[in-house]
Structures are given as structure tokens and as C-alpha cells.
Amino acid sequence: MTSPKTYHVKSFGCQMNVYDGDRMGELLSAEGMTAATDADSADVVVLNTCHIRERAVHRVYSEIGALRRDDGTRPMIAVAGCVAQAEGAEVAKRARDVDVVVGPQAYHRLPALLAEARARGKAQIDTDMPAESKFDALPTRGPGRPSAFLTVQEGCDKFCTYCVVPYTRGAEVSRGFEAVLDEARALVDGGAREITLLGQNVNAWDDAGRGLHDLIVALDKLPGLARIRYTTSHPNDMRQGLIDAHRDVEKLMPFLHLPVQSGSDRVLKAMNRSHDTASYLRLIERVREARPDIAISGDFIVGFPGETGAEFEETLNIVRAVNYAQAFSFAYSPRPGTPAATMDAQVPKAVMDERLQRLQALLNEQQYAFNTASVGRRTSVLIERKGKIAGQMLGKSPWLQSVHVVDPTLKIGDLVEVDLTHAGPNSLRGTAPMKLAA
Questions:
Q1: Which of 86, 103, 126 is the last residue of a domain?
Q2: Which of 121, 201, 263, 334 could form an SS bridge with 234, CB 3.0 to 4.6 Å?
């Protein structure tokens, strides 16, 4: 088998998977390969998978089957990410076309595993969680997008009863302060104007007593960096220093993703969440006192085992109390190996679907209201990509709203002042942009 010359990475799921997918692409580029525009034209295809929901797992095997071409050939196939970690050798057993199975803590070995698979003609599997950091083996960041992800924390020690992350990503580990700053500098040198700090519990980041707020303060001093974000946070790790940073650090955007999952205290306890509704609402109040214009986002699971109709109504109540700008909501999906998967009183699918529709209707109403309230505001927008019509560019407001601007003079990476003129359910339109200083 000849050495591959092109690659294509397709990532599913969370922002951390997007980050990991970018890093795997950089690894393959460092081996002299070039990125292909799609899977059909690639010699190597990496499927960077998500294991949070059952449907996502099924999709992986469908994607593998679709990679076989009309002439009977196929690219080399690597399955990476959380499905690889959770199912290991079962992936290669179930899908014979797979050449490499590599977990999220071992993907720095991807080029070597591909070479071994070519040499041996046999699938190579690495789902180890080595003590040494994979980040030390990754190449220096090069030119990239104006809005970049930067993983600072991985893994989870919370063991929510519905969640596979502690089993697929391991225990909570924080990257070192200087290593994060070095990567941030490289991202800015490569064109990033905005950096989003990532972690399964990003606000649990800690290096020798320095917390996430200390890291944000250090990034605030980085020349050329205009915006800082972070996700995903856990209520239990939301320290006062981080709340104060929303008040004091101008580059920290007024947006907070803080999952609550349910409005029922009994359900939260069954989920092994370390907060209750009262403590969560107090936390939201403290954050809004520090930054009154902050946009709050959240996560919700409906139909958790044993959830009653009255308990679901409590979830609707907390949504009304918080008034979310954005949110993600899902019907409960049992994941093998998690305690919730074997709990009694599993909620029927039809009931979950009806509850999810009601919840999403309320959340969509709140998001549209938040967007509508933004009309008439002048704000900065970071241009990230071209739109679908001539001269249209798309970017993000400080509140993570998608904003469309028609101006053929704008370029990707521009930071512009925009008057928001029209709101839709999922985006806004703006006019009369004025470019801000770098």
C-alpha cells in the first residue's frame, strides 16, 4: 500500500472534538500530507467520534460504510474520539474496513498507527490513557481560523449517572499555565482574534492554585487577542474569582454556558449533580450582578429515569426563572456502563419526545426574545466566514449570536462595529459596519 498523501478529518459532537480534530489534522500535515476538501478525495479519513448519545454511535458505523466507493476502493479509515475509547477493538471487529482505532488521550500516535496498519495489513488499536500529556507530542499551532478553540482541561471527576465522559476521557487533568499561554500565543500569531478555552469542566482548571480566572487575566494581556470565551462550566466549580472576571476583564465575552440539566431537585440528586435548583439560581443571580448584560446558556435532559410529569414542570419553571439566551436540550439516552442505564422507571420514548418538544418550544421562544431585544444595539462582530449570498459575511456578537452583514469589503477575521437591525429565531442582521482597530 502506497503512503497516503491526503487526509480528511470529520468531527462529531462537542467543541473539544473540533479541537482534537484540528490537532489530528496538524499531525498529519506535519507528516507531509495535505487536507482534502472531502472524504471522497482523501487517502485517509479520520472519523472523530462522540459517544454522548446512542444515535451518534450508530452514525459512526453508517459513516464508515459510506466511505466505500463505487469502484470498491476505500480510503484508510481511522476512528478516533470517545466511541473509539468506549468500544475499542469492537469497532474494528464490527467494521472490517477500519484501519486504526485511537482514543482521545492517544491520538498523538495517529501517524504511527497509520504507518503500522499499512505495514502489517491489520487494524491498530490504541485506547491507552498514558500518564504523560499528549499535548507535549503535538505540533506547534499554525495559521487557523479567527475564532480558535484551546483545550485547557480534560476529563471529569463528577460521575453524573447518565454520562460516559469519566470513562472515555478519564479523570480531570489541567494543562500547565505556561503551556496554555504558549499555545494561545501561537494561535494569535496564526490569526486568531478570539480564543475559547475548552474543558469537560473548564472552570475546574487549576495549576498550582491558579484558577481559570487567573488564566483569563493573563490572556487579557496578550497583544492581538480581542476576545476570550470558555466552555463548558460546572456549577460546582464556579468560583467568585471567575464571576469577578466577567465584571473586570473587558476581553471576556458576556456569555456563560452553565448546564443545570433539570429543574427537579430529586432528579438532580439521582443524576449525581452536586447542585440543587436553589444554589443554581443563586449562582445565576451572582453572575448577573457582576455582568448584567450576560447571556446565559444551559443544557437540559428530559425523561431521565423516574422523571414524573410534575418534575418535568419544575424544569420548565427553572427555564422561566433563568430566561436563557441559548440552550441545548436532549431526550435522555441510556449509555452502556453508566448507572442510569439500569435504573428503574425508564421513561417511554413517546413521553420523552412530548416533553422535549414543550421544553424546546419554550427555549426557542426565549432565544428569539433575547435576539429581538438586541435590535437597535451597536456592537462588535467578529467575521468568521462567508454567507450564502453575494457580499454577505457571517460573524458572532459578544453574546455568541450569529450576525449576517452584507458588505463586500469585509474579510474573514475583521472585527467590526455593527448596528443590529433585524432579529430572527437563530440569528440577526446588521448594517453599517465600521472596522475596529486590531
A1: 126
A2: 201
Burial 274-304 (b: 16+ CB within 10 A, else e): ebbbeebbebbeebbebbeebbbbbebbbbb
DSSP letter, residue 141: P
Q: How confident is the model at residue 2 (pLDDT cuts 50, 70, 90)?
A: confident
**Nearest to residue 190, comparing CAs of 37, 435, 413?**
413
* pTM (predicted TM-score): 0.91
pLDDT of 54 higher than 70: no
Q: What is the largest CA-CA distance in the chain?
A: 63
* Distance (Å, whole) CA 176 – CA 180: 6
Residue in the structure block whose three cell numbers are 437591525? 421
- Count: domains in the chain: 3
pLDDT, tens digit, for every residue of 164-174?
Answer: 889 888 889 99
Contact 76, 7 (CB under 8 A): no
Q: What mean pLDDT is predicted for residues 113-142?
A: 88
3-class secondary-structure state, position 196: strand
**What is the rounded CA–CA span in Å between residue 365 and residue 357?**
12
Q: Mean per-residue pLDDT for 179-183?
A: 96
Q: Is 76 helix (H, G, I), strand (E, B) or coil?
A: strand
Report the half-sphere exposure of 349 (CA within 13 A, side-chain side): 2
Pairing of strands 326-331, 295-302: parallel
Question: What is the structure's pLDDT at 77?
Answer: 95
Within a domain: 51: yes
Same-domain status, 116 and 187: no
User: Residue 112: is its pLDDT beyond 90?
Assistant: yes
Element containing residue 290 per DSSP (H, E): helix 277-290
